[in-house]
């Protein structure tokens, strides 16, 4: 149908993905999501316990750690 | 400066506001109680009609040695199929090439209205259009994932990363949030915000030129600078238009790729 043939050797699943396949976006999304989710949960805990933000802080740090771990496992492997 | 431009400048509101995105009604002309048909609506239908007619005409009698129009249509399709679909999805990408091409061409044309003289606003600068496109991509990648992995197994695949069990409670909420909540928002907002900001920038510099012309005789020469900036920014807009259409398509393909990915 089209002039060009589709590429003969599309990259197989084991090879590295081509550049600019949204990996940067995924990484940033993991970082922000980690911070927001666990920071948010920490904020709720703060609200519940009556502290002024210590759990939100801990949550954000833990969440961003989780985000980094996810990036390493999902994108770095 | 000439009297005419001063008169013209007198009724130019500055600075521009969000109100400038809500255009007057066309049918009924200038009506205030019915906004079912505005320039945005007109541009949307013109875009749809243009795309349908263009591809019908160019593919009507395909020749082995393509005519110029056929060559253009084939190049667009070939670009999306080879550089986006097959590159990211492998052989299965060919199945998605028609949808991705439609998406790419539609967003490109809808964005392009932002710099077409007399149209000069993109329907995508209203969040409704990017939102619907994002919902389509969202439903599609979830459906494809469920079909590929078999129902709820997809969610197990998407939510549970390869990690030791004691860290999973920490990771699963992050996975859920980033995959099923952030994705549609970031898709829609990225396209919308780019088109909104582009239109706003052009408005600021165009109307700013008039405002300076109107303000003070010493400011008047700088209105020329402002309009020169408008021209430069129009070229920047062109870059943004193409880039955002490409990014939306690539990200949709990347989400489908994630849904189709097997365990590793």
TrEMBL record, chain B:
Lineage of source species: Bacteria, Bacillati, Actinomycetota, Actinomycetes, Micromonosporales
Transmembrane portions of the chain: 36-59, 96-115, 127-144, 165-185, 191-213, 225-247
Alphabetical list of SUPFAM superfamilies matching this protein: F1F0 ATP synthase subunit A (SSF81336)
Protein name, per record: ATP synthase subunit a
Tree of life domain: Bacteria
UniProt keywords, alphabetically: ATP synthesis, Cell membrane, CF(0), Hydrogen ion transport, Ion transport, Membrane, Transmembrane, Transmembrane helix, Transport
Record-stated family: Belongs to the ATPase A chain family.
Biological source species: Paractinoplanes deccanensis
Listed InterPro entries: ATP_synth_F0_asu (IPR000568), ATP_synth_F0_asu_AS (IPR023011), ATP_synth_F0_asu_bact/mt (IPR045083), F0_ATP_A_sf (IPR035908)
Topological category with respect to the lipid bilayer: Multi-pass membrane protein
Pfam families associated with the record: ATP-synt_A (PF00119)
The encoding gene: atpB
HAMAP family in UniProt: ATP_synth_a_bact (MF_01393)
Subcellular localization(s) per the UniProt record: Cell membrane; Membrane
Keyword Transmembrane: yes
NCBIfam families: ATP_synt_6_or_A
Function text: Key component of the proton channel; it plays a direct role in the translocation of protons across the membrane.
């Amino acid at each position: 149908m089209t002039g060009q043939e589709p590429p003969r050797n599309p990259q197989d699943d084991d090879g590295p993905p081509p550049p600019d396949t949204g990996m940067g976006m995924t990484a940033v999304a993991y970082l922000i999501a980690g911070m927001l989710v666990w920071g948010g949960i920490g904020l709720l805990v703060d609200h519940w316990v009556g502290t002024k933000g210590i759990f939100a802080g801990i949550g954000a740090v833990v969440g961003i750690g989780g985000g980094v771990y996810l990036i390493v496992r999902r994108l770095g492997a | 400066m000439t009297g005419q431009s001063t008169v013209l400048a007198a009724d130019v509101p500055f600075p521009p506001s969000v109100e400038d995105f809500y255009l007057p009604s066309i049918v009924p002309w200038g009506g205030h109680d019915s906004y079912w048909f505005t320039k945005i609506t007109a541009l949307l239908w013109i875009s749809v009609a243009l795309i349908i007619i263009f591809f019908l005409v160019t593919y009507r009698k395909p020749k082995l040695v393509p005519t110029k129009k056929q060559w253009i249509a084939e190049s667009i399709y070939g670009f999306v199929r080879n550089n986006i679909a097959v590159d990211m999805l492998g052989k299965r990408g060919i199945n998605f090439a028609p949808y991705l091409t439609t998406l790419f061409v539609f967003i490109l044309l809808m964005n392009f209205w932002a710099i077409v003289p007399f149209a000069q606003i993109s329907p995508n600068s209203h969040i409704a259009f990017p939102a619907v496109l994002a919902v389509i991509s969202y439903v599609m990648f979830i459906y494809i994932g469920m079909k590929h992995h078999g129902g709820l197994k997809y969610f197990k695949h998407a939510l549970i990363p390869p990690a030791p069990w004691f860290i999973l409670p920490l990771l699963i909420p992050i996975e859920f949030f980033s995959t099923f909540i952030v994705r549609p928002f970031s898709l829609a907002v990225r396209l919308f915000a780019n088109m909104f900001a582009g239109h706003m920038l052009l408005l600021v510099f165009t109307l700013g030129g008039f405002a300076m012309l109107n303000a003070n005789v010493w400011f008047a020469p700088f209105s020329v600078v402002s309009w020169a900036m408008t021209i430069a920014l129009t070229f920047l807009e062109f870059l943004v238009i193409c880039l955002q259409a490409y990014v939306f398509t690539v990200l949709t393909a990347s989400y489908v790729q994630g849904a189709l990915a097997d365990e590793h």
